[in-house]
Design a protein that fits this description.
Shape: globular
Pfam families: MiaE
Distance between the termini: 22 Å
Number of helices: 7
Organism: Flavobacterium shii
Structural class: mainly alpha
GO molecular function: tRNA 2-(methylsulfanyl)-N(6)-isopentenyladenosine(37) hydroxylase activity
Oligomer: single chain
GO biological process, one term: tRNA modification
Order of helices and strands: HHHHHHH
Number of strands: 0
Helix content: over 70%
Strand content: under 5%
InterPro entries: Ferritin-like, Ferritin-like_SF, tRNA-Hydrxlase_MiaE
């Protein structure tokens, strides 16, 4: 369903399990950034009523996920660390087209958002199926379902708001680009790392 070409090696979970505090801290900040991304899209596209309505729901869900991760961190007696840079997301950001119309920029930003949600969903699936901690396995399974919904929402809006972009072709370019960079990741105890 996600169309990703390279799956995460399940052995990545061994790295994650070596430092649960780090993965949870990174995950919390990923949720914060996802909420901020949705709010930013609303800010720049406030005239698109349906987009605003749906992205308000996503922003709220992402903040709820941040709360859930923070609660989990506290229950486990861990500490929410400082915000982390997400090098994977930064590389994807560079792939976004900066020219064209305002609507073209919106479509590419939506595809960028869909890509992040797709990889997050895939990583949550790998965690849910391979992590030994059963509380975390269930937690990541539930979040995987939510991320899949966000992915389809962003992709759907990209198709809805395009004027002259072949969204399927551009999405294929995003998939190819993501495939070219993801081989550099899966080596750290971070959601995208």
């Amino acid at each position: 369903m996600l169309g990703l070409k390279l799956a995460t090696d399940p052995r990545w979970v061994n790295i994650v399990e070596s430092n649960i505090e780090e993965i949870l801290t990174d995950h919390a900040w990923c949720e914060q950034k996802a909420a901020s991304n949705a709010i930013s899209l609303i800010t720049y596209n406030s005239e698109l009523e349906e987009l605003v309505t749906e992205l308000l729901i996503i922003a709220r869900e992402e903040l709820e996920h941040l709360q859930m991760v923070h609660d989990l961190i506290k229950r486990k007696g861990l500490t929410l660390g400082r915000e982390r840079k997400d090098h994977y997301v930064n590389e994807l950001f560079k792939f976004m087209k900066k020219d064209g119309s305002r609507k073209d920029a919106l479509v590419d930003r939506l595809l960028f958002s869909a890509m992040i949600e797709a990889r997050s969903c895939e990583r949550f699936k790998v965690l849910s199926e391979n992590i030994k901690d059963q509380e975390l396995a269930k937690f990541y399974r539930d979040l995987m379902i939510s991320e899949a919904g966000h992915y389809t929402t962003f992709l759907g809006f990209a198709r809805k708001y395009t004027d002259n972009i072949d969204v399927d072709k551009r999405w294929a370019e995003w998939i190819e680009f993501e495939t070219s960079i993801i081989t550099n990741y899966g080596k750290q105890e971070t959601i995208h790392g």
